[in-house]
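Dear all,

This email documents one entry for the complex benchmark we are building for the journal club exercise. For each entry we list the sequence lines for every component of the assembly. Then comes the predicted three-dimensional structure of the complex as a token string, followed by one or two observations. Please use this as the template for your own entries, and keep the labels exactly as they appear.
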Amino acid sequence: MKFILSILLVALVTFAVGIYGNLPWWSFTVTNLIIAIALPIKPLQAFVAGALGVGALWAGLAFGIDMANNHILSSKVAQILPLGGSYIALIVITALVGALLGGLASLTGSFVRKPEIK
Amino acid sequence: MRIVPFLVSATVTAGLVFTLNIQLKLGATKAPRLGYFLSPQHGFWKNAEKVNTNFDATILANDLKGEVDVYMDDRLVPHIYADNDEDAYYVQGYLHAKYRLWQMDFQTRVAAGRLSEVAGADKLSIDRFFRRLGMVYGPERTEEYINANNPVMKATVDAYTAGVNAYLKQLAPEDLPFEYKLMNFEPENWTPKKTYLFLMFMSYDLTGRSASADLQLTNTRDYLGYDLFDQLYTNQQDSLDPIIPIGTAYADPSIVPIKPLQSDMAYLKKTPNVDIAKVVETPEAPDPNNGSNNWAVSGSMTKSGRPIVCSDPHLGLNLPSLWYEVQITTPSHSTYGASFPGSPAVIIGFNDSLAWGVTNAGRDVLDYYELKFKDTTQNEYWYNGAWKSVTKRVEVIKVKDSADVIENIAMSHWGPVMFDAYYQNPQSNGRNLAVKWTAHNPSTGVETFYQLNRAKNIDDYSKAIQLWKCPGQNFVVATKSGDIAIKQQGDFVARWDRQGDFIMPGEDSSYDWQGIIPFEENPMILNPARGFVSSANQKSTDASYPYYLGTASSFPLYRGISVNKQLSGMTQVTAQDMQALQTNNYNVFAEQARPALMKLVDMNRLSKEAQRMVQTMSQWNLYNHPSEKGITIFKLIWDSVENAVWGDELAGSIIPLTKPESFVLLEQMNRDSNFSVADDIRTKGKVESLKEQVLLGIEKATEKCLELEKENKLSWEAFKATRVLHLTKIPALSRLNLPIGGGVNIINATGENHGPSWRMVVHLTDEIEAYGLYPGGQSGNPGSPYYDSFVDYWAAGKYYRLLFLPKEKLKQHERTKWHIQFKKAVA
């Protein structure tokens, strides 16, 4: 239950701190850390929750934007980066970067408190 | 707490955040800050515009005096309806910023020599070039002058500036244009000086070629000696068809420039300077094909009985485009046309009384003077028999991730000392050179456009262009009432023969400019008997004009011949005929050069493959159409013959020299095919005739043709591979390999990355019938469907009908899509 809650909370808070463009793009790593402290779960679970929460959010946002844009920009950026012009690869990379950072931040937080054993 | 795992994990996380938050190396350039760039709420994804974006908006702006309604049509062209002029320019500034912010910011940074501030130390030499050329000095003087003397222009530019800054103020960080995120810098507030810097950059683009040409000509003259130089770089153009028809009489000149005594020895035949300079990067010199076509046909030639104006400026083809279409309507005037993001008003366009267009005059308004400094402090230079002091102008260049660089520029009475002990390039060749350039003088150019936007008749047109100084232009005009005219206008130096073609001695005031040709004496024709006026960057007059126009290499010859030849036979002209003429691919140079070449070809002495190529070339229909192969073969053969003829004469120089113009060889072939320069001076004891050189040239070209044939690249479109390049030159943001014909010497002057940057045809009927487009799109955002939406249409030679209507009609027009309302916030 706490695991599922963690995922949802991570996604929600990451989205919320992302709305204000004045906050740095990596603000979610701080909030993930706090969430993992507030809702202690096992380190591996915390990593997965952080990774899924941010990764799925970023994948979803990127996918939605890209569909509405008919891949105009993504196919250009995927040549600059270079990903052979594949917008799918670009969405995957976006999601992976978010997932990796989100996971690591949550993992870090999970080491602060020992999860209570029920 | 598990300290060790916590610390390890925290370190890895922080390290990764740090790495993704800096610019890593990506090949030769730097990658964006990847974490930021990829974040869907901060980075590039935010620039991916919905393809069905609704552009309706209400914008609250307390700087406005009244209300402004903007209607956007289906091509995203804004039609601005304002209660007063200043509000209109405020909104123009706002819209330029909304759709083209990065481009305006970037281009004016380049002009100001501030590229290394955002791109790093790699670009320092380009910044130093522009600073030392006086690119900041000129706009500073313009700003001072306008602030002190011209309250209306000050108010206009201030309103425009306020509009740009109003957009910036509400711009959220995540909505920064794409390129800022890619290159990792931020916009800064607009200032009036930036507008003047932008216009200065146009002066550089259109007259700055002398900054390298004068050096090249000097080096070539030194290398060849004046007599051979004068033969190869002749100013005589037998086939010239000037802007002002041959035989037109000119009044006696009011200035008769006096050639300094002994200048034949001291100036024309100076002994060569053998110092070899170290190589530094300079910006690409302005394209020699920066030119344009414009013409107007009178009602006597048209089907409707009303005049038609056509204008297509040929400039570098870039995305985002240099141009932005706009309609501006206020109680004082109503104008439509192409504007410059960075400047208020319409630059090339029409209003409800007349239409105007411009081409580059090509006259030389930038000269170098060589100085002798007393010592290494460079504080004093020799002038009229005494030491004269300089002042020092300090310019600070900020460099990204590096220390500031200070330029101490010596200011002589000629102008800034561009080249000295601290700054040289291969062509300056160790000399101390001061620059004198009309673009350094305060400019009233903004007012020319401001007044043209409001002009009602030929008198208004004349008053407007009288204010125009630099870059010299051929202003074409036609009015609804039936007048047509063209005038070459700008500050042009009254020169003695060849004055300023080469570096001049800076120690002697007799080499100074002896005056600026008065407005009344600049070439003009009004309602000529032949029923049309035209210009295509050729010399404006024949030799009977009493002033020296400049080196022939500044004046392309063949496009003008083509335009006049085509217009001469026309009757019952329609706007569609004029579109066909603007996109005409006929090659008048090849029409003359092919027979001249073929006369010299001995088919029996050619290889089988060369015979086949020559045959394809002879059967070619002389049109530079995209699929033609004959033009590719012709071009390769001609270039190869030119190299065979001139290459030997120029080969020995360490300093890069320029090849003579194509007309020189062609006209020489037509005069006398046995001329001595044809001989390869490197083969001792053997005299090559022109015939030998032609055979040699054809065999060489054939090798190249066969290679191209193998790669399937012999067709003109594949060979030319026209591209519209993003300003950063990143291929993914550019449009490559466009299927389009044309080329150098062709009315459709589309080269590889250069050509008709805005095509406009205006039929001055009661309700104006206007067509136009440019190879770009109204949005500068690579993530918008409007980024390159006109490019394919442009390549296909098609036109859009331009909507130019009063507010009530436009509002209801089927092509009107969106409404942006600007109003004061309620207090």
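Observations: Chain A touches chain B through 41 residues (CB under 8 Å). Residues 64 and 107 of chain A are 28 Å apart (CA to CA).
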